[in-house]
Amino acid sequence: MNALGKVLQWLGQAVAKVMVHPAGMGGWLLLNRTMVNYAAKVQPDANSVIIACIRLVQRVFSEAPLIVQEWLPDREEWQNIHQDEVVELLERPNPYYNGTTLFKATLADLMLNGTTYWYKVRAKNGRPVQLWWVPQALVEPVGNPTDPTVFIDHYEYTAGLATLNLVQWRVEDVIQFRDGMDSANPRKGLSPIKGLFREIFTDDEAANMTASLLTNMGVPGVIIAPKTGRIGHDAAERMKAEYQSRFSGDRKGEPLVMEGDVTVTQFGFSPQQMELRSLRGLPEERITAVLGVNAAVVGLGAGLATTKVGATLKEYGEQFFEFTMAPLYREIATELTQQLLRDFRDTRKFRLRFDLSQVRVLAQDEMDREKRLNSMLLSGGITIAEYRRMLGLPVKPEHELYLRPVNVTQVPTGPLKLPAGGTSPESESTSEMAMVPAGSNGRNGHH
Questions:
Q1: Same domain for 377 and 237
Q2: How many domains does the chain have?
Q3: Stated pTM of the model
Q4: Considering the domain boundaries, does residue 231 fall inside one?
Q5: 175 and 142 inside one domain
Q6: Side-chain-facing half-sphere of 176: CA atoms under 13 Å
Q7: Which residues share a beta bridge with 262?
C-alpha cells in the first residue's frame, strides 16, 4: 500500500472511532392498530407451522458439509481443503454433541429470535478446542457505558436464575449469528416472528377450536332450556354434567335422555360454517412466507393446493433452496470465517464454505455443470488441470495439458492462402484427440 493509501486508511479508521452507537431499547410488545398483546398470548416454538418450517431447514442444512478453501493467487481461484482442524472441530464441537446437533440448535434459535450464540472454550495456547451453543435468551451484547463509540464491549451471560449470576464474556470468545439488525437493538438480529404474533395466535386458536369440537363429538356449544317453568340451580348443574359426560371423552356418542320438557339449541357455529380449513390457510401462508419456506415444500395444505396449477413441487423445492438455503449457507459460512477461522488461519487467504455439490436437490445442476466442463475440456477451452480443479479433484503437474481435436488446424488471421493445387490446408479428419502442453501456440486449439 502506498503512502496515499495509508493516509486514506488512517482517515477512515479515525472517522469510525467517533461513531456513537445507541443503547438497546427493549423488545416489541404491541402490533400496529391493536391494543392486544399477542406476543404474551403465543409461544412460537410450540406452533406446528413454525416447527415444520424449522425442521425442514434443519434437515436440508445438514446435507452440505463444511470445507476450508485456500486462495491461490497464481491461479486466481479457491482450492478446497476437505481435511482441516477447524472442520474437525465443527464436526465434533464438544464431548456431548456433534456438529449436526450444534447447527440444528443454532438454526432454530436464529429463525425464532433472529440471534444466537456460540461460546469458545480455549486451550492454553489460545486455540478454541470446544464450541457450545448458548440460547440467545441467556446472552446480552453490551456496549461500553462510558464510551458509546464501542459497538459491543462484552457479552453478559446469565449463568443461573438470579440476575446476580452474570458472567462477562470477551467479544473474541463469542460467535454471534445475526439475521440482519433489529432497529430496537442493533446489537441483535431481527426476529422474523415479531411480525407474526397475530397469525400465530389465529392458527393456535383455530387448532384449539378444532380440538374442542372433537372432544365434543364435533358438536359446538349448546343451550339446554326448559320449555315451561324454571329449574333450580342444582338440577341445572346435574343436567349440564350429564350432557358433558355423554358427549366427551371415551363416552362421547352415547344416547342421552333429558329429564323434563327441555329444548337443546346450538350455540355457535358448526365446523362447516366456520370453514376451519380456510381459516387456518391464511396464517399458514403468512408464516411460511416470512420464514422463507414454501407451504407446499413443507407439506402444508395451503401450499399443496397450489401445486395443481403453476410450479410443480420439484420446482418449489429448487426455489426454496435458491432463495432461502443458499443465502443462509453463505451468511453462516461468512460469520464462521470471520469469528472462528481467524483463530486458526489468515482469513485473507483462507475461508470456510459449505460444499453445495453434495446437496441432492442440486444434483441435476451439478450434472449440467459437469457436461459443460467436459465440453470445454474436449474442445480445448480448458486444461485437464483446470477441469480437475473445478470438479474438486487433485491436480498434478502432468495435468497441465490441453486436449485438442487433431482435425482442427491453426490458421492465421488475414486472407486465406491455399497451397498449390487448391487443396484445403486442413489435415485429414479424424476423431482422435491430441495432447498439447498448456501455453503452446495460444490457449485454445481454435485460434
A1: no
A2: 3
A3: 0.68
A4: yes
A5: yes
A6: 27
A7: 226
CA geometry: angle at 212 spanning 210 and 214, to 5°? Answer: 70
Cell reading at 38: 399477542
Among 358, 378, 400, the domain-final residue is: 358
Cβ burial, residue 417 (10 Å; 0-12/13-18/19+): exposed
In tens digits, the chain (447 residues) has pLDDT values of 666 666 556 555 555 556 777 766 555 555 666 778 888 888 998 898 899 999 999 999 988 999 999 998 987 888 888 789 999 999 999 999 999 999 999 999 999 999 999 999 999 999 999 999 999 999 999 999 888 889 999 999 987 665 567 899 999 999 999 999 998 899 999 999 988 888 888 888 877 767 766 665 555 556 666 666 677 777 777 777 776 666 655 555 555 566 666 666 655 555 554 555 566 677 888 888 899 988 888 877 654 555 554 557 777 888 888 889 999 999 999 999 999 999 999 999 999 999 887 776 665 565 666 777 778 878 777 888 877 877 767 788 888 888 877 776 666 666 656 666 655 544 444 445 566 666 655 444 444
**Among 193, 144, 204, 141, residue whose Cα is nearest residue 171:** 141
**Cα–Cα distance, 59 to 323 (Å, whole number):** 17
| 267 and 330 assigned to the same domain | no
Q: Distance of CA 319 to CAs 61, 293, 312, 324, 447, Å?
A: 15, 9, 11, 8, 41
Query: At which of 227, 244, 273 does a domain end?
Result: 273
Q: Is residue 443 part of a domain?
A: no
